[in-house]
Fold:
Amino acid sequence: MRKIFVDYTRCVACKGCEIACAVEHHPSRSLADLVGDGRTQVNVRVLAVEHEAFPVSCRHCDPAWCMAACPAGAISRDPVTGAVILDQARCKACGMCAMVCPFDAIAFKVTHASPGGRETAFKCDLCSHRVREGRLPACVEACHSGALAFREHEEVRRDRATRNLREYLLGERALPDTFALYRELRRKEFARRGEPAP
Amino acid sequence: MERKAPMRSADPAGVEMLEIAERDRLDSVWERLEKQQPQCGYGQLGTCCRICVMGPCRIDPVGDGPTRGVCGATADTIVARNLTRMAAVGASAHSDHGRKVALTLKEVAEGTVTDYRITDTEKLTAVAAKLGIAVEGRSFPDVARDVADAALHCFGKQDDAPIAFLEAYMPAKRFERLKKLEDDLLASTGARYGLLPRGIDRESVDILHRTHFGCDADPLSLVLQSVRCSLADGWGGSLIATELQDVLFGTPRVKTVRANLGVLEEDMVNLIVHGHEPILSEKVVEHALSDEMQQRARDKGAKGINVAGLCCTGNEVLMRQGVNVAGNELHSELVIMTGAVEAMVVDVQCIYPALADLAACYHTKLITTSEQTKIPGALHIQFEEHRADAVARRIVETAIDAFEARNRGRVYIPPHSEEAVVGFSVEEILKALGGTVAPLVKVIADGAIKGVVGVVGCNNVKVRQDSFHRELTAELIARDILVIGTGCWAIAAAKAGLMQLSTREQAGPGLKAVCEQLGIPPVIHMGSCVDCSRMLVLAGALADHLGVDVDALPLVGSAPEWTTEKAVAIGTYFVGTGVPVHLWPVPPVLGSPAVTKILTEDAKGVLGGYFFVEEDPKAAADRMEAIIAEKRAGLGL
Amino acid sequence: MKVVTVGAGVAAAEFVETLRNEGFRGEIVMISAEGFPPYSPCVMPFFLAGDPLETAYWKGADFYDRLGVTPRLGDPVVEVDDGKVRTASGAVETFDRLLYAPGSKDRYPEPSWLGVHGVFGFKTLSDLTAIDRHIRETGVRRAVIFGGGFIGVDAALALWHRGLQVTVVHRNNRLLSRMTDEEGGKFATRLLAERTGIEVRLETRVTAVNARDGALASVDLTDGTWIETPLLIVATGVTPESGPLTGADQGVAVDEALRFDPRVYAAGDVAVTPHAVDGRPGLYALFPNAVEQARVAARHLVRGEGAYPGSVDANVLRKHVDFPVVSAGRFEGEPLTWQDADRFRRVYLKDGRINGYMLVGDMAAAGYLHRLYLEQTPAEREVSGLLSDTAGTSYYRRAVGLAGR
Ligand SMILES: Cc1cc2nc3c(=O)[nH]c(=O)nc-3n(C[C@H](O)[C@H](O)[C@H](O)COP(=O)(O)OP(=O)(O)OC[C@H]3O[C@@H](n4cnc5c(N)ncnc54)[C@H](O)[C@@H]3O)c2cc1C
Ligand code: SF4
Ligand code: SF4
Ligand code: SF4
Ligand code: SF4
Structure:
């Protein structure tokens, strides 16, 4: 199964992924229409983790904690893409799934898919409708920095291993110098902001 | 739980107010920064282009994604275009301020504006002499009109010759160097690169043109134009603002004031003047202090009216009128949170739109006055030069009327303020030196003072308020380096008590002795941020005295908590004048290795000035000391 | 091979579905006391609040057909003995393997109350459909719930959501007393009362029900007062339905494969299982436990292997409201607390590990906390950050190597 892999060291917090996801899941599929629309569903959140930015969406676990916990039968696995899908039409917003999701990847609000104007849980659906058509998830397509990749797990593991080896043996850097400098300065700026009074 | 306040400000009054803000869950610039996290890296790297609607385009800084925008612009082009636009905006803000001063002077000279007068005829004569305008046997209004016309000509003239103010004020060696550079670049590349500004407005418009879709893509060409535009600010617009304000309102004289929120008075009507221009605030101060208004305030149950400044409007009235200053940029919300401010009157620049909502939570009236700065939710009282007195009166009356609505239960004025000796125009410095820069050159030559660092403005909420300003300044004076400066840095230094005569005890032995001898503090307040031109003039005087170019002098500039596009222009005109400039935070250029290299390395060879980035005050001081040592060695000292 | 289930509830349905997923093709018979497709008791209060009944059938209304099951409905099992089960109607079903999963039943302070029209339990869908009918037919506007535990509060919220005026009578000093410690429980009680307007009568009990023409008219309370109401819901506790198998109502002891004996598995609210973290055996009557037990039992039946890792006591009440009450583990050890006006977050640490926790008001970082608890990861350094983490970033702090700094 292909999943979204995150390399947060490349994330520049542009939130392009959030916007793309929001458009993809908005009934109108239009950027203009989601402006000011509180029901807009954004399934990925770029979290600020100190100076780092971390794009958070569902990991599509197997077995999935949330699926085992959902007493409404609202969570199931897509047989084609392997994605863990939350059917908001069946969701009661009881919170069981969010209580056990180890990645805190489930949120609640009234979305366009919530029945009867009631809050429901929502989360990333891996853009299964796109993936089934051979397209990339919207967020991955939107990410220009390579922070998000849609790939087989094994492939990613192998790649990471060779990259680390090249870095180690050949001294190759994974990130360009000025980008590494930018990251370092961002870290310093944050650290100074958080420094307790002398 | 961790206390946030001490991590947000190094100023004790700031910390106290931030604790109140936290307790009462008040929104503030610090809270909003947290809510903005994480902030977009494309923006921080400068690699987001919104210049045309084929975009927006972003260049992947990591190299996996697109390396060119839709039009083909590379990261180098995009970063350079964005930076150059920043310089144009900053230079325009300063220069447009200068234009208004020149226009007012002209109207005063012609008698169409009668609410102002020519206050400093000595300065008028000096400026006229510099510009080669005859004074002998002429009336002051006549001379003033010619001076104003000369200034206005710098804004709007259409020929290619350098502007008159720059030519008159820039040290000779620098002027020659820039001219030669233009010629050399043309000869070696066959292409024209300009450095000497042809018109103040023109250089900004030039940038708007050349950064339009499909024009200049050459990072070097773009960066050099940002230098030319910035020089039009430093040696043009800002200089005109400073010089002509001195003519209209008087050249600053040394005086003592108090700085920080403690200058607010519990039982008086507190009126804050905030922004950048003295034209209106001079009048507000005048009317607030009038017997009539003071009586009116007493009639309402107050003990009187207390005017205090904020940011550079604060600096203007502090330098000339000795008005106490309540704080710098990051204090602008905190001052309202004291609950003791009846009105905050603002002109232009650095005014948070958030102030309107905050003021609405109190009895405070936020009064906007400029056509160029209107804020939804604020009370707008339109300022016009020919009705200055009437407008100022109305503002003061509005403040008085608000006093009754003050909720005494909510008032808290942190008991912190420091004394500061301020008012160091170049004229005052020369006076202290006995009329010439020679004694200053001598103490530098004999090593009592190793060099001079000019620090300029802004707070930046990403930096613990004033911490860099305080620590850097203290580090430098301890190393016998004289610190001069303007803007929000100057207020930070004043609030920190670094501008007292006794501060010399913290200075190195050489600097201390000089301060004792001249009766000055080791940390010198030279005015508002347009008054950075005063620093240029002082540097120019030193260079001309020694017959060298500015880049030979042991001078360094710094903007350690910078925020605005104006700071980009200031930093760039310092660099263009030959002064190395320290910056923190990093400007949005790292997305382009080429632009980063031009600014931090190549500029040194070409212009003598260059940028460097350093996030630690001590390390920054080390670097500055090393640069000063290098320059001293170059001078054979 | 023929497989029979006693009960057609959460555990039984999950068991059957897992059997089929594991490739079991043999005959399956499900026997239930009630006449519904498998339903989720957790969801049925939403039916009472107005949702369609079908949404309670969490595996679909076509479950029996879809999975090729023979249902025997509306006929409770009364005895299990040597390869046979006997029902109340006298029918006998033989089995090769049995899943015993009849759940638990309400325990009434006074069984006679049930004879009064207008007094109901809140345990089965039969209860809830009867309540629904009563409300519709007699236009009920007012309800009293006796019992302020999880099920009682669940009932109160459902009826409140439906628009009834609701009073909860509870003998403890706070609602949800088993899910909370005193301070957390009082915080949650205040929040519930303030945000919903449900009336809460603490340290009080119902002593008598008074009928008029056979229908409930009012209830008497220990404090000497009474409340006029046409509807009383009794939710004062439950007892495992273990009688037909063991002859006693103490629950069914099982081995690590959930076996009572070589042919009989037991799962769900009736099974006595070890706690996943501290191993203490008990009745951990929660939905995820029933599901996991059913899966382990079914896989064991097919593959002959597998062991149950133990039950979890994490629970959350977040129905019809947006201020959840989350709780897990034991409230013993060193308490660490973070709170503001709307939120109360407390962790009990024992040997630097999370021994129990409560989150009232929001669920930020709840999942990560749950994982740290289950895995018993040393969390001393992380815990204060975790408590004040209202943005849910804690897991990611660890992921980027910033945890516990
Ligand atoms: C109102 C309510 C709300 C709940 N909310 C939650 C929640 O939010 N989260 C959570 O984790 N848990 C919740 N629970 C608990 C959860 O529903 C149970 O833990 C779970 O249903 C147990 O599954 P089970 O199969 O053991 O029993 P059940 O699902 O109750 O199934 C038992 C089945 O057996 C049948 N039966 C009973 N006796 C006999 C008999 N003698 N012969 C044949 N059939 C019989 C019943 O009719 C029923 O169909 C809730 C329970 C209730 C009542
Ligand atoms: S929601 Fe959480 S538990 Fe469920 S699959 Fe996604 S990451 Fe896993
Ligand atoms: S919140 Fe919705 S999806 Fe999550 S467990 Fe409850 S019903 Fe299922
Ligand atoms: S995969 Fe699709 S649903 Fe999931 S975060 Fe990305 S865009 Fe959103
Ligand atoms: S699009 Fe990519 S770089 Fe931008 S915020 Fe999302 S993950 Fe980060």
